[in-house]
Amino acid sequence: MPPATSKRGVGFQAPTGEFEVLMRPSWMSRFAAGLMACLVGIGASAATGQQLYAICAACHGARAEGNPGLGAPALAGQQVTYLQRQLLNFRSGLRGSHKDDTYGAQMRAASQAVLRDEKAIAAVATYIAALPRTDVKSASKFDARNGNNLYQGKCGACHGGQAEGNEALSAPRLAGLDVAYLKRQHRNFGKGLRGAQPQDRYGKQMALMATMLASERELDDVIGYIHAFEAAR
Questions:
Q1: What pTM did the predictor assign?
Q2: All domains of the chain in start order, with CATH
Q3: pLDDT tens for residues 194-214?
Q4: Helical segments of the chain, H only
């Protein structure tokens, strides 16, 4: 995670979207030492996916269930190919390099520090994809009929009728992702923080599709529909 300075000390910015969590130098020293010891101890370049994921669990949870309070999405049950592609994109700078994408920058730094090669990326992606999928809590206020119509008309052709994703179309699973993360990624695509680079073919497709929802209310209805459908399974 990239360091941030503060009058209260050196620390890092947790991806909350609303506030910073500033860690004291002593805490950061212990964290850095523990991280390095872990990497050295397991031999990061030859580590298993489970061993590598132990580093990721600090934000994404022990079972990759996500932590909305830290802005960390659920990863469990996501497609292997999608996870690999995003990790490679973070490492190469196709994702997380925009100056306003704070959370992406943190993931970019983490992936470069922990995942040293494509073999490590494949191992951790395979481990995460095999974990049990995450349960979600449906939104309390949304128009289910409008959400259904919008989702099936604008999203379902690629992401699946049940938001389960479609690996053949390189469309990830959306079910199980929290509201804040879905909204943030929609905004990032719309504002060019993600999917703006010519080499990011799939990101460019989503950047175009992000313009298809005309209002925040429509986005709320779509997300509410996805979550209600997932919770009812």
A1: 0.79
A2: 1-134 (1.10.760.10), 135-233 (1.10.760.10)
A3: 999 999 999 999 999 999 998
A4: 25-42, 49-60, 80-92, 102-114, 118-129, 144-154, 156-159, 179-191, 201-209, 216-231
